[in-house]
Design brief:
alpha/beta, 7 strands, Maf protein, single chain, 207 residues, nucleotide metabolism, seven-stranded mixed β-sheet, 6 helices
């Protein structure tokens, strides 16, 4: 019987990423039961780890005796001093251009537009960035462990590719000459920040 892990997300892109990787380990990935009706905790941490830990502890209370994973991830752009960072999903909302990310299906598009505007005129050599992900695993309100993954890239001046989500269409991988949005999901997860964090967590998770 396959191990089952619950993930504290309803984001279809994240779920697809996790499920793709989990197949290799014969692990079933499902959202926390009733997640859509559970009020979200306040994510007021200043780091990805703080937010991931907060969410993992909180949501594990809704799945007794089960291992619950929560991630906090985002984009860090060197030219912007590491922004948007923990505010990656709310970058456009913070700029007053959209409602909350949960209520706006076009949030990814607006976030990309805001980022490209802020980088307007900055040359390619200075558009270095990284995706960062921290995963936390909790059971019955206690943290079991955390893991982290990063991937380096460059922010393009215009989107390219039709896959992925978030900032993937403008996150360019020089070694592959592709954006994250160009990659097949199985290839993407093997080298992405979320995939690296997930692999590290599974290698150390005692179940």
């Amino acid at each position: 019987m396959a191990l089952r892990l619950f993930v504290a997300t309803t984001n279809s892109g994240k779920l697809a990423d996790f499920r793709e990787a989990a197949e290799e380990y014969q692990i079933d990935i499902d959202p926390v039961p009733g997640l859509a009706t559970i009020p979200a905790p306040e994510e007021d941490g200043t780091t990805f780890e703080e937010n991931a830990v907060t969410k993992a502890i909180y949501y594990s209370g809704f799945a007794p005796n089960q291992i619950v994973l929560a991630d906090d991830s985002g984009l860090e752009v060197d030219a912007l001093g590491g922004a948007p960072g923990v505010r990656s999903a709310r970058f456009a909302a913070d700029a007053g251009l959209t409602d909350s990310p949960d209520a706006n299906d076009n949030t990814d598009v607006w976030n990309n537009i805001v980022l490209l505007q802020k980088l307007d005129g900055i040359p390619a050599a200075e558009r270095m960035a990284r995706y960062r992900c921290v995963l936390a695993a909790a059971r019955d309100g206690e943290i079991l462990l955390t893991s982290e993954g990063t991937v380096e890239g460059v922010i393009l001046e215009a989107p390219h590719g039709t896959g992925g989500f978030g900032y993937d269409p403008i996150f360019y991988l020089p070694n592959l000459d592709q954006t994250m949005a160009d990659l097949d999901i199985s290839v993407k997860f093997g080298l992405s920040h979320r995939g690296l964090a997930f692999a590290d967590l599974l290698s150390r998770l005692a179940v």
